[in-house]
Design a protein that fits this description.
Largest sheet: 7 strands, parallel
Number of strands: 23
Number of helices: 13
Shape: globular
Structural class: alpha/beta
Radius of gyration: 24 Å
Mean pLDDT: 94
C-alpha cells in the first residue's frame, strides 16, 4: 500500500499537512475533491483546501491557527507570509470543564530506581557539585575533574558540576528564582551525594540557602564555604566528595513501581510534523503514565497561547482553572511589560519546518500532555506535590524550560524535536524525532524516532516500544545527551543585574 503524502488532521480543518514535498501542479484528493497545488510546498507545511477571504480564520487541529492576510485559493501554500496570528493581549476565560477519564489499564510495570532515605526515588545515582554563586564555578569544575580522576566514577552513574552565572548581584524575583532552582537541584533524587559549594560573601548566603533545603539528608548534602577554609579549599572539597562518593557507590537499583516515575514534557525545535507524530506519541505516553499513577509535567507557557482553553477546561477543579488562567495571563503580561507582542514565538527554524503562527505551534505542542485531567499547577521553581498531569510556569526557551522541568522533580525530560538539538539538562533528556530525516541524519542526538508514523507504522505499534524505551532509560540506559556528555542548566532571568 502506498504511503499517504498528506494528512487532514481534523474533519473541520481548512488545511492539510504535506507529509512529503509537493510540486506546483500536483493534484491531491481531499474529501472527494481534487485540489491542484499552486506552489511548490515543502514537507511539514500546510496547503489550503478551500478558498478563504482576507481576515478569515484558517483551521488546523480543529481550531483557528490565525487568519488570512489576503484572499487565498484552495491549493495555496499557507505560511507565515500569508497567515497572521489572532493573539493579542490578556483574555478573560470561562471554566467549561471537560470530563474525559482515561480508560487505560494499570499494567503494574516497574523500573529499576534508587530508593532514597525519604522514600523518594531516583533514576540516576550521581555526585553533584552545586555552586551557590558563579564565582566558584572554576573550583567546582576542578573538584569534579579530580574526583573523576581518583575514582573513574566506578559504582556511580556520573560526576557533574552544575555551573551557572548567578547567585550574586541579582534582585528580588531573579534572586529567588536562582535560589529555588539551586535548592531543587540539591534535593533531586537523581543525586546520591551533593556538595554545595559557596564563596561566602555572595547575596545567596550559604546558611540561608541551606535553610531553604528544609529537612534534608545531612549525610548526603554537605556545604563548603571556600572563603572560610584556612588553606587549600581543593583538599577540603575533596575530603567531602570522597565521603559522599563512598556512600553513593554502595547504593543499588531496585524494582520500584512505575507510579513513582515523573516525566517532563518538552517540545524543542518544532516542525510541521511535531503535532502529528512526536507530540501525539509523547501524549500517549503521558496518558499511560498518569493511568499508572505516575506524573507528567507540561511547561513552556508561551507555547500554550492559542491552545490554553483546552488545558483550562481539563482542570479538575475551579481553583486549578483559576491558577491556569493566572499562569497564562501573567506570562502574557510579562511579554507586554517589555513591549513585546504575545504572538511572535515561532523561531526561524519553526517557520522553515512548517509552523507559521504561535497558535499553530501551541496546538501541536500541547498534544504532548494527551487527554489526562490537570491535577496541579506550579509556579517557576516550585517542587511537585501532585501526581498526574501538572502544568508548570516557565518560558519556551529550551534550556530554561528543560531545567525547570528537572528542577520541579522530573526524573527524565521527553524532548520532541523536528529540527534537532544535542542539548541536555541535569536529568536524562530524551530526544524524540518528529520526522525520519532527522532520525537518519542525527542518530547520535536522537533517542527515538516518531517519524516511523509517516513511514507506515501505527501509533498502536510504536507506543509500547516507546514506553519500553523510556523505562529502559529510567532503569539506567543512557540517553544520547548523557552518552555525549551534553548536560547543563539554565536559570530564568528577567530583571536587573547590579
Amino acid at each position: 500500500m502506498a504511503l499517504a503524502t498528506f494528512l487532514k488532521i481534523n474533519p473541520a480543518d481548512s488545511v492539510v499537512v504535506c507529509l512529503a514535498p509537493k510540486k506546483k501542479g500536483d493534484v491531491i484528493e481531499v474529501d472527494g475533491k481534487q485540489i491542484t497545488l499552486n506552489q511548490d510546498t515543502p514537507a511539514g507545511h500546510k496547503v489550503l483546501i478551500k478558498d478563504v477571504q482576507e481576515g478569515e480564520d484558517i483551521i488546523k487541529y480543529g481550531y483557528p491557527i490565525g487568519h488570512a492576510r489576503q484572499a487565498m485559493k484552495a491549493g495555496d501554500w499557507v505560511n507565515e507570509n500569508n497567515l497572521k496570528t489572532n493573539l493579542s493581549g490578556t483574555l478573560e476565560y470561562t471554566y467549561q470543564p471537560v470530563d474525559e477519564p482515561l480508560t487505560i489499564k494499570n499494567e503494574n510495570r516497574t523500573f529499576k530506581g534508587y530508593v532514597r532515605k525519604n522514600g523518594d526515588v531516583g533514576v540516576r545515582n550521581e555526585i553533584w557539585i552545586v555552586p551557590t554563586v558563579g564565582c566558584v564555578n572554576g573550583i567546582a569544575e576542578r573538584l569534579a575533574h579530580q574526583l573523576q580522576q581518583e575514582t573513574n566514577g566506578e559504582g556511580i552513574d556520573a560526576i557533574w558540576t552544575w555551573h551557572h552565572n548567578y547567585g550574586c548581584s541579582q534582585l528580588s524575583e531573579d534572586h529567588e528564582n536562582t535560589r529555588k532552582v539551586l535548592r531543587d537541584i540539591c534535593l533531586h533524587p537523581n543525586a546520591g551525594g551533593v556538595l554545595v559549594l559557596s564563596l561566602g560573601c555572595e547575596n545567596n548566603q550559604p546558611e540561608d540557602f541551606m535553610a531553604m533545603l528544609g529537612d534534608y539528608d545531612q549525610s548526603r548534602i554537605k556545604l563548603l564555604v571556600t572563603q572560610r577554609v584556612e588553606g587549600d579549599e581543593m583538599e577540603a572539597g575533596m575530603e567531602i566528595l570522597r565521603e559522599l562518593y563512598a556512600q553513593a557507590k554502595e547504593d543499588k537499583r531496585e524494582d520500584v513501581p512505575v507510579s513513582k516515575l515523573r516525566v517532563g514534557l518538552k517540545c524543542g525545535g518544532s516542525d510541521g510534523f511535531s503535532g502529528i507524530t512526536a507530540n501525539p506519541l509523547v501524549g500517549e505516553f503521558s496518558d499511560w503514565l498518569v493511568a499508572q499513577g505516575g506524573t507528567s509535567v507540561l511547561t513552556e507557557v508561551p507555547e500554550m497561547f492559542g491552545a490554553e482553553t483546552i488545558l483550562m477546561n481539563r482542570c479538575e477543579t475551579p481553583e486549578l482553572f483559576e491558577q491556569t488562567v493566572s499562569m497564562i495571563n501573567n506570562f502574557k503580561n510579562y511579554f507586554l511589560s517589555h513591549g513585546e507582542p504575545v504572538g511572535e514565538n515561532p523561531s526561524p527554524g519553526n517557520k522553515a519546518g512548517g509552523i507559521s503562527t504561535l497558535e499553530d505551534k501551541a496546538l501541536g505542542c500541547t498534544q504532548k500532555c494527551g487527554k489526562a485531567p490537570v491535577s496541579g499547577v506550579m509556579e517557576y521553581g516550585d517542587r511537585l506535590e501532585h501526581t498526574g498531569l501538572n502544568l508548570l510556569s516557565a518560558p519556551g526557551n529550551d534550556l530554561v524550560a528543560s531545567t525547570a522541568l528537572a528542577s520541579c522533580g522530573c526524573h527524565i525530560v521527553l524532548f520532541t524535536t523536528g529540527r534537532g538539538t544535542p542539548f541536555g539538562t541535569f536529568v536524562p533528556t530524551m530526544k524524540v524525532a518528529t520526522n525520519p530525516t532527522l532520525a537518519k541524519n542525527k542518530p547520535h542526538w536522537v533517542d527515538f524516532s516518531a517519524g516511523q508514523l509517516v513511514e507506515g507504522r501505527t501509533m498502536q505499534e510504536i507506543v509500547p516500544e516507546f514506553i519500553d524505551k523510556v523505562l529502559a532509560v529510567a532503569s539506567g540506559e543512557k540517553a544520547r545527551n548523557e552518552e555525549n556528555g551534553y548536560r547543563e542548566i539554565s536559570i530564568f532571568k528577567n530583571g536587573v543585574t547590579l
